[in-house]
Design brief:
Number of domains: 2
Strand content: 5-15%
Order of helices and strands: HHHHEEHHHHEHHEEHEH
Structural class: alpha+beta
Helix content: 55-70%
Number of strands: 6
Largest sheet: 4 strands, antiparallel
Number of helices: 12
CATH class of the largest domain: Mainly Alpha
CATH architecture of the largest domain: Up-down Bundle
CATH topology of the largest domain: Rhopdopsin 7-helix transmembrane proteins
Length: 376
């Protein structure tokens, strides 16, 4: 009966989190990658909660085949724990900047701790590296138990590092939610390692995922539903807090040409598709901490950390090339073009609001240039 009291928290959290996940699946937009990532991560955490509870229930029970089941369950747990913390890091990264920045050799190197842990887990049945199951069906930590724990901690710490690195582009309320996202599993894992026998890792991860779900729900307020760019209110809030900035920012003000004509000739659904496809192309060109916001209608703003206008011009041309290429591939019947105003906002600019208005004027002059037959 003692084993059941040890797993009661896992079972209660399992039921509670399963209900939350069912609600999340029905309410979240699963076309968004970060939401799909959250759902998959949550499903695996549910499996881990049950597997961990089963290992405790059957531990020391004098049934011959229980030792085999216990061994398999522990293999899965030790394989999944670092894998899930890696997925955890990816969820933090996707939530902050929307994409992974590591490629090629850098990505392989970053995955090396995960690969090493997998090798140790696969060798454990032969050498008892991470754990052993005695003939009396008793689980015992192995001499290399710390490999799995350190691998899990590595990705959790990298997640914290991402929060610190990108803190200047994270809204205050988002930072609170994302901090809980990382801190709760860290505290839960420390408690479980320090006090042998208690189960706190997966329950703490499940509870923090509940906070993530609330964050994803709140995120709909901050993101434009059609384009998944920041809303005007979110951008204004962030921009206001950046008034006393210490570094220069490069801004690109974009306004799509002839959207009204497209809506009139092809319907508003086609106009929405143009905005959705074009803004996806724009987001695919953004790097790292760059901000992308929809200011209203067909007006958008890109914020880059640069003091070089040539970088802004190169980015505008890249966006034009990408949109034109995708329009050609999709055989769009009309030209998808935009007008842009660019500028560098210096740390000592007297009026950021006036600077935005100046960008608007530059964009309008380019639009007039397009209408009179000029090319941009």
């Amino acid at each position: 009966m003692e084993q059941y009291f040890r797993v009661d928290v896992n079972l209660i959290v399992f039921v509670f989190f399963a209900v939350v996940l069912i609600i999340a699946v029905n309410r979240l937009d699963l076309e968004a990658r970060v939401n799909r990532h959250f759902v998959w991560l949550s499903m695996i955490v549910l499996v881990q909660l049950i597997f961990e509870a089963l290992t405790v229930i059957i531990n020391t029970e004098p049934v011959a085949w229980f030792s085999t089941v216990s061994f398999v369950l522990h293999m899965v747990l030790f394989f999944n724990t670092p894998l899930l913390t890696f997925m955890w890091y990816r969820l933090v990264k996707k939530t902050i900047i929307g994409h992974e920045t590591r490629r090629g050799n850098a990505l392989v190197l970053f995955l090396m701790p995960l690969i090493i842990n997998t090798v140790f887990v696969l060798l454990t049945p032969f050498f008892g590296l991470i754990f052993t199951i005695s003939e009396a069906n008793v689980y015992v930590r192995g001499p290399w138990f710390f490999v799995s724990a350190l691998t899990a901690y590595f990705y959790l710490m990298v997640g914290i590092g991402q929060l610190i690195k990108h803190r200047h582009v994270i809204l205050k309320q988002d930072m609170v939610a994302l901090s809980f996202l990382v801190v709760l599993p860290v505290l839960g894992s420390i408690a479980q390692i320090a006090f042998y026998g208690i189960l706190t890792l997966w329950s703490s991860m499940a509870l923090s995922l509940v906070i993530v779900y609330l964050f994803l729900q709140e995120r709909f307020v901050h993101l434009d539903h059609l384009t998944q760019a920041w809303t005007r209110a979110t951008f204004d809030n962030w921009f206001y807090r950046r008034r006393n900035m210490e570094e220069a920012l490069g801004l690109i003000f974009i306004d799509f040409d002839d959207l009204k004509t497209i809506n009139d000739n092809y319907g508003h659904a086609e106009g929405d598709r143009l905005l959705k496809d074009s803004t996806k192309a724009i987001k695919d060109t953004t790097i790292g901490d760059e901000i992308f916001a929809r200011l209203g209608g067909d007006e958008f703003m890109i914020v880059m950390q640069t003091d070089n206008e040539d970088c802004l011009r190169e980015r505008v041309q890249l966006i034009r090339d990408v949109i034109a290429q995708r329009s050609h591939m999709n055989r769009i019947k009309y030209a998808t073009t935009f007008s842009a105003g660019i500028g560098i906002l210096s740390p000592h600019h007297s009026s950021p609001d006036a600077f935005i208005r100046e960008l608007d004027k530059k964009m309008y002059r380019e639009k007039q240039h397009h209408k009179t037959g000029g090319k941009g």
